[in-house]
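re: that chain from earlier
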Amino acid sequence: MTNDEIKEKLNSKKSSDRRRAAKEIGRNNIIELGDDLFKKYLEEINDERTWETQCEMIKSLGIINYKKLTEIIEELIKNPSTGGSIICAAASAYVQLKRKSNDDGKPILELLETDILNIINGALKVLAYDKMKPDKETIEKIIKISWDLNKHKQRIGVEYGTNDSREYVANACAGWDKELTLDFLNHCIETAYNKSHLGKEYKNEQLIKICKNSLKGKYSKADL
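^ sequence. v structure.
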């Protein structure tokens, strides 16, 4: 799509069109459409029904590093009533907007102090998506915090349909020093189990695949 076509879809009455336009801006890093996207997002937040479109707008504004979004993102993260998908997207954008460089992991460590799993997931997603390579100390802290995130209190009992947060860290490990990641990746492989809706345990093949790829220094498909 051309920029004019994207603008046209941003102003469409169909939420699906606006959502597609937002995705295009992020996917192609179209910084010059940041003001247009932000303007539409400010309108979008007044309609709770369009939470999916709001998520895509937040994601893309974070990707293009649209700083005017920062204050709103901070408020979303602080607000306990923010929906799960929106707060996850907000956490990802928070990292992208607050870091001083692509490899600055301090905003991630900041969000990992929370007990809210959706915020943790949002923060960790950026690691692989942006192929971040924080310093050794930050990597060690992230791995330590993430070691048993599959047992997070907000995941126990609802494992079915809930991602294992370690997938995001395991994916990022592809670009990190293997001496720092080997034990974590092997631990994830050994403990890669989910539960079905009937409570039956089964292997998390996706996590295993990600870990094996990372052991070879290969990123798996990452998606925000």
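The longest strand covers residues 193-195.
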